[in-house]
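Subject: complex prediction, re-run

Hi both,

The earlier run crashed halfway through, so I resubmitted it with identical inputs.
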Amino acid sequence: EPEVTQTPSHQVTQMGQEVILRCVPISNHLYFYWYRQILGQKVEFLVSFYNNEISEKSEIFDDQFSVERPDGSNFTLKIRSTKLEDSAMYFCASSKDRGELFFGEGSRLTVL
Amino acid sequence: GEDVEQSLFLSVREGDSSVINCTYTDSSSTYLYWYKQEPGAGLQLLTYIFSNMDMKQDQRLTVLLNKKDKHLSLRIADTQTGDSAIYFCAENDYKLSFGAGTTVTVRA
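This time it finished cleanly. Structure:
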């Protein structure tokens, strides 16, 4: 069964460093998303991406964040200069239409 | 804005039914979802319901939707220890808005 895959599963970084989280969405899906979940809190929407551009972003998704689809398969989330409060589980998701979202297993980011 | 509310905890005896409740605010949501998250794992879609339906049954899972009251519930019949997890209700206006999650603990 097709699935969304994310790498790395866990990344530890120093405050101020750049981090890139990678996702391979399901191949025939057109809509791509990043969500995050700070430990013990709810899952929060960050950004959605369609037709090679951001279609919506939340107030969390500030200038420190960017997304890119560098080729036909990968969808990346970059955090330019990480802060302690960026520590969270980051989930990538994709969907064929604006209906059912399929989530990856998540990438846990720990900022020290 | 969207706001999805859930009770935070539910404890249920193995073999009993679990009912998890959720209220939402966005009446334009086309789909409403239930996701399951086991410890340290990702989000697993359990089931979803179209907003023009009142009920959907899928094996041990029954989803009830009351659009008038904007109330969604998930019933798990014959709850098993493997059902222990956090259950998230979510609504979509193409991006998902999640509730805080209900932690379900199944006791023997």
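Chain A has a mean pLDDT of 93.

- K.
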